[in-house]
Write a structure and sequence with these properties.
- The protein has 222 residues and is of the alpha+beta class.
- It has 2 helices and 17 strands.
- Strand 5 and strand 6 form a beta hairpin.
- The longest helix has 20 residues.
- The protein is rod-shaped, with a radius of gyration of 47 Å.
- The termini are far apart.
- This is VWCE protein.
Amino acid sequence: PPVMLVELLFQAACVSLFLAGGQGRVYPGRKKPASFAVERRRVGPHVCFSGFGSGCCPGWMLSPGSGQCTLPLCSFGCGSGLCIAPNLCSCPDGEQGITCPEPPGTCGEYGCDLSCNHGGCQEVARVCPLGFSMVETANGIRCTDIDECLSAACEGLCVNTEGGFVCECGPGMQLSADRHSCQDTDECLATPCQHRCKNSIGSYRCSCRPGYHLHGNRHSCI
């Protein structure tokens, strides 16, 4: 019957049109269109495709020079190191990790304060004066006096001062040039006696010439 022949011819025409216009979408497993390969070559290996187009896969971004997805991303930064793969840094010390430790800055361990004068500002290290130590408190960092007498080697008495210490010697003794040890004071140089003076360690004694005797004040002669 001619009706069946017309239907068969119509179906054959539809199939041939469908195959001609839509190759690659009919049978799963066939090669992807040539445009895919071109786009892959253009943007590099780390490309993710979705229904909304294509973009770099997580952890990668476009390299400014080539426009390809070949530049790795390190979320935590690499400091002075180099990002060699997603969240993998190569550090100057040869170690690898998700980040690199920052090199010690010019301001040292405690960071910087800003010092401004006559319109110009510069970063100044937060350090304590000599004789003070830096202490962290609930209100921040402050400088406290160091008690040098805990370790100072004074021969006599040690007196702690703000930012330092001084050594003191007992009666009849004086501080040596080294500012730590004590030496005898020759009181006779100040001529405390009317006639004769004999120095002793830490003290002195007066005496009189023949025909005189020492007064009760232990200094004058009668």
